[in-house]
Amino acid sequence: MTQQQELARPPSRKALFGGMLQVALSSFGGGMSAWSQRIVVEQRRWMSNESFITGLTVARLFPGPNQINMAVYIGAQFQMLAGAIAAVSGILLVPFSLLMLIGMVYFQFHAVPAVDRVLTGVVAAAAGLALSMGFKILDVYWRDPLALLLAAITFVALEVFHIHLIPVVLCLGPVAMLSYWPRGGKRG
Description:
Shape: globular
Number of strands: 0
Oligomer: single chain
Distance between the termini: 19 Å
Radius of gyration: 19 Å
Order of helices and strands: HHHHHHHH
């Protein structure tokens, strides 16, 4: 069975709204990329893991919140502008309303030590989700020495030499795009 046969039918605008709402409500405390991958690729099978990672890369290259950009990418891929609007609405409307409510409650009780301990646990769980996403996408790139090299250079530039993100993206982004640009009419 090919990868295309394993994918589900393209989602409707309503399904895009619901899927992005599920992503947003599943990822309290962070880890939206991991939840997005789990829901869009693993559960709903709207995209292959490779297509998802391509979208995530594009989303991270543009300014603004990655998951809003990712929602636009996913929605537009299946339902054009209306899909992008539905996906962004799903990822923003209910979570934004809940965030405002939680913020009001937090500012009433933030001095309580138990609240601080709970938030510390949530941060640890979010870090675990980010690591989980890293290992999931590593499987896709493990067979690609150029991708591993670019990732290593990026890591060393940011973490060892403390170069700011924007110069790293401006230098390595074009190198990566040119390296992976489709050639000879073939689509990657």
